[in-house]
UniProtKB/TrEMBL annotation:
Span of domain RNA polymerase sigma factor 70 region 4 type: 105-156
Gene3D superfamilies from the UniProt entry: 1.10.1740.10, 3.10.450.50, Winged helix-like DNA-binding domain superfamily/Winged helix DNA-binding domain
Keyword Cell cycle: no
SUPFAM superfamilies documented for this protein: NTF2-like, Sigma2 domain of RNA polymerase sigma factors, Sigma3 and sigma4 domains of RNA polymerase sigma factors
Phylogenetic classification of the source organism: Bacteria, Bacillati, Actinomycetota, Actinomycetes, Kitasatosporales
Protein name per the record: RNA polymerase subunit sigma-24
UniProt similarity note: Belongs to the sigma-70 factor family. ECF subfamily.
UniProt organism field: Streptomyces canus
């Protein structure tokens, strides 16, 4: 097998590791590309190609995350991970861990960890790497890595997200939510929301965004029930789509360009959290991006321009 073929075979794993460490599709793709360039330039053949590539992409991702932390501290408004449409890596034996670890709720918990804790946790707990492999990847001793993973487990367990276990029930509730949204049915929406539901948006200062999180079933239902009918009048549409392994939707303008994404966290038969990403810098991988400010002006005017 050629180096190109070996790399392409492992590419889904490398992207999935990088995305969980970085929470960014674009940065994860860049890390994978840099990993390929380093592999291509290596004169000697690694004893284990998987170990070499996993170590390389992890170290690149750690370095990127360290610099990204500074940018995120200065981020305008709520920071959310870039929405992931499909996780390219599959492992039937670890399907539950993979699905949970890619959710926005889990990625936001991972943000609380140090870069080394995050990388060690992802490799060990999500992808089941042995501690010798984890140690090689993060450049620490096995004993130090055990401590990193132990601390990360405690942090994650304290706020670990829980989701509706039955996928069919989750999808059925999401379908009812989107039906009510299309109809502007405030009562119908309210009946699907947890009493303490919260709705948060990420515009990054680059698009219209919520000034702060909206909390409570009545407030969220009223907001959704009033805004979407006005958006529909200027031909904004949406299509349900899994986002980060959870029910969600992609919203489009009249020209079919991506306006924003919306993801739902569902537990105990109710929607617990709604997260929207409208920052155009985070939507390029989803498709051509709409002018959110122009849409906002049209909605505010109540008529097409």
């Amino acid at each position: 097998m050629s180096r190109t073929e070996e790399f392409q075979e492992l590419r889904p794993l490398l992207f999935s590791i990088a995305y969980r460490i970085l929470g960014s599709v674009a940065e994860a793709e860049d890390a994978v590309q840099e990993t390929w360039l380093r592999y291509e330039a290596t004169a000697t053949e690694p004893r284990s190609v998987k170990a070499y590539l996993s170590t390389t992409v992890t170290r690149i991702a750690i370095d990127v995350l360290r610099s990204a932390r500074v940018r995120r501290e200065e981020y305008v408004g709520e920071w959310l991970p870039e929405p992931l449409l499909d996780d390219p890596y599959e492992d039937p034996e670890r399907a539950a861990e993979l699905a949970e670890s890619v959710s926005m709720a889990a990625l936001l918990l991972l943000e609380r960890l140090s870069p080394l804790e995050r990388a060690a946790f992802v490799l060990r707990e999500v992808f089941d790497f042995g501690f010798p492999e984890v140690a090689a990847a993060v450049g620490r001793s096995e004993a130090a890595c055990r401590q990193l993973v132990s601390r990360a487990r405690r942090h994650m367990a304290a706020g670990r997200p829980r989701f509706e276990a039955d996928r069919e029930e989750r999808e059925e509730l999401a379908s009812r939510f989107f039906d009510a949204l299309r109809e502007g049915d405030v009562d119908g929406l309210r009946g699907l929301l947890a009493a303490d539901v919260s709705m948060v948006g990420d515009g990054g200062g680059r698009a219209p965004q919520l000034a702060r999180a909206v909390a409570g079933a009545q407030n969220v239902a009223r907001l959704l029930g009033s805004v979407f009918p006005r958006m529909a009048r200027i031909e904004v549409t949406f299509e349900p789509h899994q986002l980060n392994g959870q029910p969600g939707a992609i919203f489009y303008d009249r020209d079919g360009k991506v306006l924003h994404t919306l993801a739902l966290d569902i537990l105990d038969g109710r929607i617990q959290t709604i997260r929207t990403v409208i920052n155009p810098d985070k939507l390029g991988h989803v498709g051509p991006v709409a002018d959110a400010w122009a849409i906002h002006r049209e909605v505010q005017a109540g008529r097409p321009s």
